[in-house]
Each structure stands twice: as structure tokens, then as C-alpha cells.
């Protein structure tokens, strides 16, 4: 029987099974053996191969034309990024097509399916074209003027160089860096920063939305001291606050203190509640944190003794008793075994001792409670232009709505850019609504999504308008004031809410005016517009010697939709790898571990996915030092298995676990 594809040159079929390339090429004999064994699919013939060559040549021509079309932009890119910028343009042109049918045909031929071409696009296409032409007994090579492209080795090398430029050289044997956001207490806690650096922190992140320049400077000084003691280096990243759109203030809630003893699962008291009584003319903070504090007249307080009992009627008209357990110079400790609600003016009365009014004392002023607006699906919420304190909805005795809930927003000029029918989200996507009407001084919002039992909207919560074309500059007046400190002390400045190339250009201009020292810029991608404009912003950022991208998954999930976040973050990783630009994987990494000391299974998997980036960011929390240790271990384990999209075939211990003993099935009798 005549062998299929016998028209192919014998010399090529004999070219050793060593003709396998790093991008997945198999020898011709292997290709033929595979295709001949498939009865359900005919072996590709001359016409099939010719068709694939034609498709690839067309795509290649489009890629080259795209680079030529942007030649002017390429001339403004820094020399460090020249090849990377060309590679980015090639990749964008490649991904303008649905390549899945072509990939399938390439795979059937045993060739590279272009699935790992991000960091070296044109050379991957050229290598495949060269092999396809040799299969047709033809010679082909790319034009000489296009020879200076990123090859397989240089793609990885460029990304490594740009990563070290942004984050500094790695010294821990771990490829992916760890960034930690500083809490306010880091300004006065050297040990915290020392422990973080010792456990593996590579980058300190300071959020300029919190604290002030004096506190930031103390944090940096602590870091420099820890670096000297540990012999390690750590980059300082400073995050500009940006135009964060938030809810305005609410009217104060009722001034009431709820006092609760500790109870077991059966409701039995296991420990009484402790209350701190302090003189109202010179109140002292309680010796223990998070303990209710009540102010009373100093003369009455001075006559209390351990063991005395104080009777009262609380805000619910419930009869309660406090017991005096300890008297100190600055105040007095009392205990309660029942839940009690205290308001200003509540009368405490001794049960023994003095007579008349000397036995009684009134509780003084209490801080107002934190108010909230309760919202359910279908409710109406009014957003106001000013920051007049908002209030919950008012209803009559029959539950009929009298006035809807109102709340202000911190950037009223966004009202000029919103339109009826657009979506709006509050509190990191916890509450969703639809804009019904835009008036001169207010916007009417119909609530469309909350928890099943409703949601509560507090003051100072984020607002997202993913479908609105907001004309907000990425840098605010506060950002420009902070920028002078950032330019002097930070290695990298993070641009929050980067939405356009113009935002990046303005920041570059502001930094240029501040002096010779130029920190690198990281683009925080946290809006839909920022995601859509990422390629253009990258080309602008690449005018500087060094730049990076942060996937700020909190706001980005709200803006693009939670169900689409996985897809969006993958696309950002691909685009940045094509540009050889390092990426920071951020927001809620090991969040439960950092805040509560125990990670969920999903968080561990998410942290492992961070190995696809060049840096993973942890937020602040009481267990952040432990979280750094855990993340360091996860990233070390994963780097032997995964590098970007490429699986690394490290030797598996599990592969040696198959028992060598042979088992036989006993014969039936």
C-alpha cells in the first residue's frame, strides 16, 4: 500500500527524530504515524498544508503592517522597551483573529499551536512557517529587515530584566516577589517591618490614602534600618489615592451602648461583661481596648467600693444590676451578667450606703452610633450632589414610604456623566442598582441587587459606575501634593484609577517637574476603561526606562462583573507578557489568613495562581507576618510547576508511588 504523503522528501522524513523544537515540533515520522492511525480524520495533504501556510502568511503580513502603522509611537518608546513594544503590537495584531481552527490544524500536524507565543510572537510564527515550507520541500525565511525581533530566549530575558528593574534583584531563590501594604501602626512599630522583611517581603507598599507624610517617613526609616540589620533590600512603592468615588456622611445614629456578657452555645453566661466607669470632667480611656466606657460624676465615682451593687433601668425598661469589682485612681471596673442597653441620662443607683440623691448618678454623653441605610431589592435611593448627611428612608406607622433614603457622593461632578439605564454599584459590589433618573441636584437609583435579607449601606463606601464614561482625571489635588514626597522617597509610584494614556502622560509630566529623581510608574488597572485602554497606556508608560501593571481585582471585579474577572485578569497577564512588563497580582490574596489567622482552600488556590505574575500583594491585617510566610512557601512550591502559561514538567514524587508488586487475580474454582 502506498504510504500517504509520499510526495514529501525522504530526506526530511529521515531528519532524525531529533528535529523536535522547543515549541513542540515532532518529527515527520511521528506526524505521519499519528495521522495514519486516525481513521476518523484524513491525514493533512498538500492542500491542507498549503492552506495553513496561506493563513499564517496573511496573519504575519497583518502583524508587520500593524507595527509599521504605529512606527511613530515606537519612536517615542524608551530604548529599554523598543523590542518589547514591537512584540506587543505583533501580539495585538495576532489576537485580532479567532485562531482556534488554525490552532487545531497546527496541532494535528504536530507543530506549535502558537499558544505560548506571548513573549516572542513574530519569531514563533516564522518558525512554524519555516517548518511548513520544509514539509512542502521549499525554503523560506523571513525578510532580512525583519530579522531583529524578539526570539525565544530574549523574550524571557527581557521580562526578567524589566522585573528586576522594577522590583530589584531577587535574593531568596523565589522568582515571584511579595509586596505588603503597611498598616498605620507600622509608623511606630519597627519590629513589624523587621519581621515582614525577615519572612520574605520584597516590596513595601504605602497607601497615600491613609496617614500622612510624617508617618510615611517613619515607615521608610524603619525599613532602611531593617535592611541594614538583615542584609536585604526592599523597594518602596507608594500608591496615590486617586479620585475614589465614595458615599458621603450619614446622620449620626442613636447614642446607645450595648453591653453583652459572653455566653456558650446554650446561652449560659461564661464570662460577665466588663464596663469602665470614668469621671465625666476628665475621662480616661479604659485600660483594656474595645471595652464600653461610661462617664459619671467624679464625686459619686470616688465613693464606690468593691462589692457594691448598682441598679438601673436600661433603654428597654429592663431592670439590670452592675457589680463593682475594682476601684482605681483613674476609674472603676464594674461587671454585668445580662445584656444591657445604656443611653445618656441612664440612672445608676447604689443599693446600700448613702441616702437620697447621693446614691444616684446619671450616665453622661455617649458617642453617636454608626448609622446605616437598609436597602432591599426594589427600594429607591437618592444620591445628592452635596455632602449633607444622608438618612435612611422614613415610613409611616403602616409601613408606607414617606421619603426615600438619601446619601451624598464625594465627587459630585460625576453627575454630569451618568445617564438613565446605567448600572451603579456600592460597597465593592455588595449592593447594585440602576440609574432611573438624573436631575439637576440628585440622581434616583433603583436597587436591583442585594443579599437575600437586604443590605446595609454605610458612609465612606465605594461607588462604581462601570457603564458611565466618567471624565475624571487620575490625579487629584491631594495626589499632586503627595507627589513631592513620593518623588523624593519612593522607588515606584502607583497610579490609581489609570484610565487613559493621557492620565499616564500627565503623571510623567508632574514627576518631570519635580526633579531629576524619577520613580518608576505602575498602572493600577481597576476600571473597565483602564482595561480597555491598557495597550495604549502601556505604550505611553514604556517611554520611561521601567514600568509595571497592577491587577487591582477589587474594583476591577465590580467594574467588569465578578463572573468575568477570571477572563479579564488572564487577558491582562497575556498583554503584559507580550510587552515584557511585570505584573502585580493584588487584592484579597490570603485575605482571611491575614485578618483572621486561617486561610480558606479557595484562597490558597488563588495565591498559587499568583505565580503567573511577577509579584503578589498582601493587604494589612493582624496576621500579615504569618501570611507572608505562607505565601513564600506557596510561591516556592509553585515555581517548579508553572511559569506563566507553561507547565513545567518537574519530577513528581507521586510518579514514584505506584507499587512495584504485581497482583494476580486468583483463578476461579
Q: If you had to describe this structure to a student in words, what would you say it looks like?
A:
The protein has 669 residues and is an alpha/beta fold. The protein folds into four domains: 10-150, no CATH class; 161-242 and 472-647, Phosphoenolpyruvate-binding domains (TIM Barrel, Alpha-Beta Barrel); 257-362, M1 Pyruvate Kinase, Domain 3 (Beta Barrel), CATH 2.40.33; 373-464, M1 Pyruvate Kinase, Domain 3 (Beta Barrel), CATH 2.40.33.10. The chain has 20 helices and 31 strands. The strands form eight sheets. An eight-stranded parallel barrel has the order 1-2-3-25-26-27-28-29, surrounded by eight helices. A hairpin with a 3-residue loop joins β21 (431-438) and β22 (442-449). α3 runs antiparallel to α7 (121-135) and α9 (190-199) crosses α10 (213-230).
The domain count comes to 4
Name the average pLDDT.
Answer: 88
CATH fold descriptor of the largest domain? TIM Barrel
Q: What is the β-strand count?
A: 31
**What top-tier CATH class of the largest domain fits best?**
Alpha Beta
**Second CATH tier, the architecture of the largest domain:** Alpha-Beta Barrel
Please work out how many helical segments DSSP would assign. 20
Q: Order of strands across the biggest sheet?
A: 1-2-3-25-26-27-28-29
Task: Classify the beta-strand content into a percent band.
Answer: 15-25%
So what's the oligomer here?
Answer: single chain
**Overall form:** elongated
Helix content: 25-40%
What structural class do the secondary elements suggest?
alpha/beta
What composes the largest sheet? 8 strands, parallel, barrel
CATH superfamily of the largest domain: Phosphoenolpyruvate-binding domains
